[in-house]
């Protein structure tokens, strides 16, 4: 199995090399040369297996040279508080719960696996240098990357987060991070500033004979593949619940387009999903491109109560464009030069054949949190609420699967505004990891302007 760059200017590489590199040298993202195909009876085969075994099965299709991955997946998911990706209900729809990992957001699903994949990839390629992980976060990736790579020998991790763009709990989770190989720095800007700064550093190709610079962002193939696994698993569980609809829609709260892209990969592998529904907050660039064919990032980034989706440049949309047959180089050149591009007719038709899209503002999100609580007694987080706002109670999306991306305890302020009261603990148990963040010592206070990111990285590399 080989991986090619979306921009077609870099040579194909093995899965192991793609995971070690992060982005491709030509600035593109690695994608499978051919999508692996699931056997027709995959759900029957996977139904008796637990989650780590299902994940190992799916990962092996993408990474055959890694050999058996059962042990690796079992180790990766041992820090979860129960089954890693249970399919529950939310009234009349299904809810895929992806926040049972150590940092309480779906990023753990991949970031508990990635460090183990990196180590295995080093073994397979004979790479002996240390791997330095550079990451920009809109709030949840940072903490999950820090927890994943904490004290893993041969690795170091540096995270940039937007100073004013994350929730208080998210920030506390990061600045209280333990571990000898970690570093955290605030950026006086938004997520796009942080992500652009990190991309500029990657473009300089700073790797040398001492270290290899890689990424824990969803531009890394090793982030994407474990996410495909939970969609295959979710459909297996869905069938087990005798649903009325054979081809359920999947509705995903979306920012960098990594999570929903994994659903598209699963569908292309043979999981019979129906519509893929892209849910955005007020930063509705993706709603616009799916509805009109024009991607236009030239607008101010709004701060919302679903901060992990406050993104205007959705990196993984490039992978979708590639899969749907677009001229990726042309689109990305125009995005860089003009801040916008228009899809060609065939790509736009292909995009509309797979995706529905909508967006919801903060008030609608909170109204949904309230309604869901009143009708089901369940508390959902503001990101999940953006997705649920359209499909919960909507006949069009009967039996659909809403993807729940964070524990509400990460965003207590917004949830309490919706439900009333002063303590979220009165509604549901708050995981220890989140309450601990309030009392642990703060270890990191550095902050830079966006144009200081590169200098900070260079100092850190010394
Ligand atoms: C990261 C994140 C998202 C967005 O996921 P993408 O893969 O970037 O589209 C949504 N909700 C939460 C809670 C997140 O942490």
TL;DR?
The protein is an alpha/beta fold and 462 residues long.
Structure overview:
There is one protein chain. Helix content is 42%, strand content 15%. The protein is of the alpha/beta class and 462 residues long. It contains 20 helices and 16 strands. It has a domain of 214 residues: Rossmann fold (3-Layer(aba) Sandwich), CATH 3.40.50.1100. The strands form four sheets. A six-stranded mixed β-sheet has the order 4-5-15-10-11-14, with helices on both faces. A five-stranded parallel β-sheet has the order 9-6-7-8-16, with helices on both faces. Helix 16 packs across helix 17. The mean pLDDT is 96. Helix 8 links the parallel strand 7 and strand 8. The chain starts with a strand and ends with a helix.
Features:
15% strand, alpha/beta, Rossmann fold, 20 helices, binds pyridoxal-5'-phosphate, six-stranded mixed β-sheet, 462 residues, globular
How much strand? 15-25%
The helix tally amounts to: 20
The CATH topology of the domain at 88-101 and 227-426, please? Answer: Rossmann fold
Q: Which CATH architecture of the domain at 88-101 and 227-426 is right?
A: 3-Layer(aba) Sandwich
Integer-rounded radius of gyration: 20 Å
Chain-averaged pLDDT: 96
- Determine and state the CATH class of the domain at 88-101 and 227-426: Alpha Beta
Low-confidence stretches: none
Q: How does the helix and strand content classify structurally?
A: alpha/beta
Neighbour order of strands in the largest sheet: 4-5-15-10-11-14
Helix content: 40-55%
Can you summarize the main beta sheet?
A: 6 strands, mixed
Q: Gap between N and C termini, in Å? A: 36 Å
Q: How many strands appear in the DSSP assignment?
A: 16
Bound molecules: pyridoxal-5'-phosphate
Shape: globular
């Amino acid at each position: 199995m080989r991986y090619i760059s979306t921009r077609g200017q870099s040579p194909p590489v093995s899965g192991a090399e793609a995971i070690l590199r992060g982005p491709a040298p030509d600035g593109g993202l690695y994608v499978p040369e051919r999508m692996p195909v699931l056997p027709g009876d995959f759900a029957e085969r996977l139904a008796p297996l637990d989650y780590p075994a299902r994940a190992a099965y799916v990962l092996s299709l993408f990474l055959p040279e890694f050999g058996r991955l059962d042990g690796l997946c079992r180790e990766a998911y041992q820090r979860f508080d129960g089954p890693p990706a249970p399919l529950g209900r939310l009234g009349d729809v299904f809810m895929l719960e992806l926040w049972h990992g150590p940092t309480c957001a779906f990023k753990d699903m991949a970031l508990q696996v990635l460090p183990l994949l990196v180590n295995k990839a080093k073994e397979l390629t004979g790479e002996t240098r240390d791997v330095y992980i550079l990451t920009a976060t809109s709030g949840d990736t940072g903490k999950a990357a820090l927890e994943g790579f904490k004290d893993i020998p041969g690795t170091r991790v540096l995270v940039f987060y937007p100073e004013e763009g994350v929730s208080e709990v998210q920030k506390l989770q990061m600045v209280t991070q333990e571990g000898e190989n970690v570093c955290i720095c605030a950026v006086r800007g938004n997520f796009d500033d942080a992500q652009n700064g990190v991309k500029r550093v990657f473009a300089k190709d700073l790797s040398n004979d001492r270290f290899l610079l890689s990424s824990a962002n969803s531009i890394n193939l090793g982030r994407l593949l474990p996410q495909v696994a939970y969609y295959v698993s979710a459909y297996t569980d869905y069938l087990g619940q005798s649903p009325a609809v054979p081809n359920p829609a999947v509705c995903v709260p979306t920012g960098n387009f990594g999570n929903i892209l994994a659903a598209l990969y699963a569908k292309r592998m043979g999981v019979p999903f129906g519509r893929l529904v892209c849910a955005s907050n007020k930063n509705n660039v993706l709603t616009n491109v799916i509805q009109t064919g024009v991607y236009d990032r030239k607008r101010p980034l709004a701060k919302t109560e679903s901060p992990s989706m406050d993104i205007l440049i959705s990196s993984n949309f490039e992978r979708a464009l590639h899969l749907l047959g677009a001229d990726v180089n042309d689109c990305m050149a125009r995005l860089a030069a003009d801040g916008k591009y228009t899809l060609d007719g065939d790509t736009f038709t292909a995009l509309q054949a797979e995706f529905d899209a909508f967006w919801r503002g903060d008030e609608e999100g909170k109204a949904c949190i309230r309604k869901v609580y009143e009708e089901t007694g369940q508390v959902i987080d503001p990101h999940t609420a953006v997705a649920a706002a359209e499909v919960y109670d909507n006949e069009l999306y009967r039996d659909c699967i809403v993807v729940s991306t964070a524990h509400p305890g990460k965003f207590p302020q917004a949830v309490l505004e919706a439900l009333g009261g002063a303590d979220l603990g009165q509604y549901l148990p708050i995981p220890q990891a989140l309450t601990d963040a309030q009392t642990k010592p703060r270890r990191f206070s550095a902050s830079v302007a966006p144009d200081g990111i590169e200098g900070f990285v260079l100092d850190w590399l010394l």
